[in-house]
Write a structure and sequence with these properties.
The complex is a heterotrimer of chains A (about 100), B (about 250) and C (about 290).
Chain A: H1 10-26, E1 82-83, H2 92-98
Chain B: H1 3-12, E1 22-23, H2 31-52, H3 54-60, H4 62-75, H5 90-95, H6 106-121, H7 130-136, E2 143-147, E3 152-155, H8 160-168, E4 176-177, E5 184-188, E6 195-199, H9 203-211, H10 216-226, H11 232-242, E7 245-250
Antiparallel strand pairs in B: 2-7, 3-5, 5-6
Helix pairs in contact in B: 2-4, 3-4, 3-6, 9-10
Chain C: E1 16-19, H1 25-31, E2 38-41, H2 51-60, E3 65-68, H3 82-95, E4 99-103, E5 106-109, E6 112-118, H4 124-141, E7 146-148, E8 155-156, H5 163-174, E9 177-181, H6 182-192, H7 196-202, E10 208-214, E11 217-220, E12 226-229, H8 238-251, E13 256-259, H9 267-289
Parallel strand pairs in C: 1-2, 1-13, 2-3, 3-4, 4-7, 7-9, 9-10, 10-13
Antiparallel strand pairs in C: 5-6, 11-12
Helix pairs in contact in C: 1-2, 4-5, 7-8, 8-9
The chains are: A mainly alpha (about 100), B mainly alpha (about 250), C alpha/beta (about 290).
Chain lengths: ~100, ~250, ~290
């Protein structure tokens, strides 16, 4: 693939820069933002810990080998409600179709 | 202490026998007791990944996501005690994971979530105020921009931002037909809130060029070459408004 | 945002403190609860910036802080991770914690981080290794560290000394202090079949600078013997409070942390536990004043 590399003149960039600035300057400023009062989204999970997790004597024991026939799980979440333009979504039928030949 | 190697091996491989020198109470058997450790290693690391990729987990469901994460953990356990760094290779793993193929956009949604995580924990920097930007204006043709350290680009053949927004919503999921076009995402944390935006045509090429140190005319030329509809004014205004520019200087 | 400020020395008081969780950042800053101090897991603040550091700096400006590492693998056979030590040092220099502690456990093998506090055999060989590691930590951190007694679920056939003997020897050789986790004593006693009060009696209380209290889950092993899991997922159990009252008699009033890391409750739940520790310390002081 080859691209015809365009060149952009310095004058064009200077005027684009000025135009962009004026757009930003005239845009209504966001409602008075006081950072101290804002409730930021705080990521809670995924932390280092010094405790054993809940239910550790039974969680996670089964070894699942997805290359064998033992992998029976299919995506079952909000992907089921999202249809791609080609008509696919994350449904079990799609899995059958996409499964590589044995 | 070669014990450690054997202990670690038995921890990670559920099929490996518990070393015979590991004892339970009063010298008794330790299989079930050892499984506390074995399970905690996996359960805790799967929890880390589920917390790091919450939207992806919603997309495919918790059961599927956790089973997939468990396989990733076994294949690629953390190489640092800083778990904030764990999970960077998970999206690539998922891209090649056959059971996930019915959800072909999953890996890109995970790349977006990883970018979000990276932006959240990145170094802080003050965006340049408008006056500073204005002062540089007349020299724009020679300028290279320093972009915010939190800035990340995610380019996708799928409408990754739309999917991410839809899946992050709580409540009843109405069936929805996704747009055909791919989307490029700009992830940025100008202050303390991570923001995700869709980029217009050519925007990602423009920003990538700036990140690579190109001057404004060079970056604009690259973007125009890749997308005939590239709008330099809109892309510059987007960078200015989002607080993505933290420094400017004339290129050497 | 990343402005460097000096917090100065603010000693951790002999009161109840709370393990800092992100879900409580806002409540703590908004309501300024009367809690003695906070403790953080060091590794969670090893990102470069962002909300974790912004909140920690704001909370540190108002409360004394203790730094608790979970990933140094002091009980590991291999060398300590020097990069990790430098990160710890940088964090300590930035936030000036009055206490710094780590675990008698290992968590890394080779280049793999296992994310659990794993047990080690107590032998002359491991003692030497642990002491060398603590000497190295002291050099790198330029501040004393406290070593925490562990909860374990299995034992090693090759172990030749008791946990308390091992800890005594470490303190004697390295000069480190101790963090007495009373819940761990209780868990350890149940899991390995000894009397927790005997363990406390033998513990070198004069070197204890901090106490941990946390919740545990009850399970049983394959032989039907009790198996307690140190899950920090609930309130501190009543018999652990009883053991704590006994520990206070030996250590005197001392900073006491409430650990609650899984199924983390609303702030009020943790605050109530910290108040209960305050009350236990007050009751101890009162009993001391009786003739």
């Amino acid at each position: 693939m080859t691209y015809q590399t365009k060149t952009i003149s310095g004058v064009a960039v200077v005027s684009a820069f000025a135009a962009a600035l004026s757009i930003v300057a005239f845009a209504a400023p966001a409602a008075a933002e006081d950072e101290q009062e804002k409730c930021y989204g705080v990521a809670k999970a995924g932390e280092n810990d010094c405790a054993a997790g809940p239910g550790t004597t039974c969680a996670g024991t089964s070894k699942i080998d997805y290359q064998g026939n033992s992998w029976k799980l299919v995506p079952k979440g909000s992907c089921e409600t999202m249809e791609l333009p080609d008509g696919r979504n994350g449904s079990p039928t799609a899995l059958e179709r996409d499964r590589p030949p044995a | 202490m070669d014990n450690e190697a054997a202990f670690a091996r038995a921890l990670l491989d559920a099929e490996a026998a518990v070393p015979e020198w590991i004892e339970g109470r009063d010298g008794g058997g330790a299989e079930r007791r050892f499984s506390v450790y074995r399970n905690n290693v996996y359960a805790s690391l799967v929890d880390v990944l589920a917390g790091r990729f919450p939207v992806s987990a919603k997309l495919v469901g918790d059961v599927f996501f956790r089973a997939m994460a468990r396989i990733y953990v076994a294949k690629t356990p953390p190489d640092s005690a800083v778990l904030l760094r764990y999970g960077g290779g998970f999206a690539d793993f998922v891209a090649g994971f056959p059971p996930a193929t019915p959800v072909p956009y999953l890996a890109d949604v995970m790349r977006l979530e990883w970018a979000w995580h990276g932006a959240y924990h990145s170094a802080d920097a003050e965006p340049l105020p408008q006056e500073a930007l204005a002062a540089f204006g007349p020299r724009a043709e020679r300028l290279a921009l320093t972009l915010h350290p939190s800035l990340r680009l995610v380019r996708s053949d799928y409408p990754v931002v739309t999917i991410w927004e839809l899946a992050a919503r709580d409540g009843e999921d109405e069936p929805v037909r996704l747009p055909a076009e791919g989307e490029d995402a700009l992830v940025l944390r100008p202050a303390l809130e991570v923001e995700v935006r869709r980029l217009p045509e050519g925007g990602a090429v423009f920003i990538q060029a700036l990140q690579d140190g190109a001057t404004l005319p060079e970056a604009a030329a690259r973007a125009s070459s890749s997308s005939p509809t590239f709008d330099l004014v809109a892309s510059l205004a987007g960078l200015m408004r989002s607080g993505a520019i933290v420094g400017m200087g004339e290129s050497a | 945002m990343a402005a460097s400020v000096s917090f100065g020395t603010s000693p951790v008081p002999p009161r109840g403190g709370v393990g800092l969780k992100p879900e409580h950042y806002r409540t703590i800053l908004d309501s300024a609860p009367d809690v003695g101090w906070f403790e953080i897991h060091a590794e969670n603040y090893m990102g470069e910036g962002g909300p974790p550091h912004a909140y920690l700096a704001a909370i540190r400006a108002r409360y004394p802080l203790s730094l608790h590492g979970v990933g140094l693998s002091i009980g590991g056979a291999g060398p300590l991770d020097k990069a990790h030590l430098s990160r710890l040092r940088a964090l300590a220099d930035r936030y000036e914690p009055a206490l710094f502690s780590e675990h008698l456990a290992w968590s890394s093998h080779g280049s793999v981080y296992l994310n659990d506090l794993l047990p080690l055999p107590y032998t002359d060989e491991t003692l030497t290794c642990v002491c060398d590691h603590i000497d190295e930590v002291h050099d790198a951190m330029a501040r004393p560290m406290l070593l925490e007694n562990p909860s374990t679920y299995v034992a090693y056939a090759e172990t030749t000394m008791s946990e308390v003997e091992f800890l005594r020897a470490v303190v004697h050789r390295t000069g480190c202090g101790l963090l007495l986790d009373v819940n761990n004593v209780f868990v350890q006693a149940a899991n390995h079949g000894f009397d927790p009060f005997d363990y406390l009696d033998a513990f070198p209380a004069e070197h204890v600078r901090e106490i941990h209290l946390g919740g545990h889950a009850e399970d049983e092993d394959a032989g039907g013997a009790p198996l307690l899991i140190d899950d920090h997922g609930r309130e501190v159990a009543d018999p652990v409070w009883t053991l704590y009252a006994e520990a206070l008699k030996k250590t005197g009033p001392i900073p006491t942390l409430i650990e609650w890391d899984n199924d983390v409750p609303a702030w009020e739940g943790l605050f109530a536990e910290a108040k209960r520790a305050d009350a236990a310390i007050a009751a101890f002081r009162k009993s001391e004043m009786r003739p």
